[in-house]
Write a structure and sequence with these properties.
Length: 155
């Protein structure tokens, strides 16, 4: 049975449209596998301790610059930590588990995480040094969350 040419064109156009929409909706598999965890972006929010402190435009620009300068190193260290963690996970499930390799990978994860912590501490320190004395008083007055429930129960 021969279908009318207009129906054939309609079916082909519909199939191509559906295929392109599906392709746009799904992330490439290589990218999803290469970057597990939350996305790492250059537009990271400012440190949480600044919440509620009004910064001048100049201070906002300086905080952005501090964050922007640190972003490539933070990204690289996060990538190192993820890769070492993934390799450790794969080694732990393999038939050729080696304690020395596992220790080296665990040390690599720990080192990368420690580097990230040091970088973030430096970012925080640079940011605090930008604050005026009044803003520092606001920061000192803010009570840190202890994680305890008001009635003494843990969350």
């Amino acid at each position: 049975m021969k279908l009318p040419s207009s129906l054939v064109r309609f079916l082909i156009a519909g199939t191509l449209s559906l295929a392109s929409l599906t392709a746009m909706a799904m992330p490439p598999l290589a990218d999803a596998a290469a970057m597990p965890g939350p996305p790492l972006t250059d537009d990271a929010p400012p440190p949480p301790f600044l919440h509620g402190i009004l910064l001048s435009d100049g201070q906002q620009d300086q905080v952005f610059e501090i964050m922007h300068r640190a972003a490539p190193t933070l990204r690289a260290k996060a990538r190192e930590a993820r890769r070492a963690q993934q390799a450790l996970h794969e080694l732990s499930l393999s038939g050729s588990y080696d304690e020395a390799k596992a220790r080296a990978l665990a040390d690599a994860v720990a080192h990368a995480v420690a580097e990230i912590a040091l970088l973030r501490a430096g970012i925080d320190n640079q940011t605090v040094r930008l604050l005026t004395p009044e803003q520092r008083k606001q920061l000192d007055a803010a009570k840190p969350c202890t994680g305890e429930h008001p009635l003494g129960q843990q969350h």
